[in-house]
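Hey there, shall we discuss this one?
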Amino acid sequence: MQSRHALAADAHQAAATRYTIGFGGQWRDLQEDTVDAFKERGYLPYKLKPAGYRLPIVNGCLLFVWRVPATPDAVGGFASSKTRMNGFFAQEPVGLFGRSFVEGGDEVRNASEQAEFERAVRAAGEVMPVVLVMVHSTPRQLTSIEWAVAEYVNGTVRPLGLETIWEHPAEGGDATAEVESFDSGTPVVPSLEPQKQERSSDA
């Protein structure tokens, strides 16, 4: 993750642009890097419709790596797109049904079919939990990474068991650790030496 961010930061600096819109492409790359890393370990990807995001399935959970935007209640609004919302209703692939489920299956044809699908999945209890890996960063550096089980309730996402799994040393350090408080310690007396003043010869 750090290497992917460093590459994007170098490209952004080389472009000498005032805008960060192109910098966001690294997050799609990061998702693909995550899929490839887990695929090498034997974990199959799952394709979310309609955008076609590929996400790894790890121990029966759907793993979604996401950069948290600097907006109020960003996590709560995570499921603002249809693709992200569909992640909370994804069923774990079953070998009997081939790879169509892994590749996302057939798209629903209308809102009524979507609602029926959601009802049926809830009733069956086969929805995969979504583990949200939340990356906090600036164009210059990664600052921290958190993860939590994401719960979807009435259009809002709530992180359960939120935990910080990585933090930049500059962010986690205590800048006041070695600073004495004003009510303790001994003040240092400045060293003052009187200087001789030259007298004018005309005085």
Notes: The mean pLDDT is 74. The chain is about 25% helix and 25% strand. Strands lie at 45-48, 53-58, 61-67, 130-137, 142-153, 156-167. The CA atoms of residues 1 and 30 lie 7 Å apart.
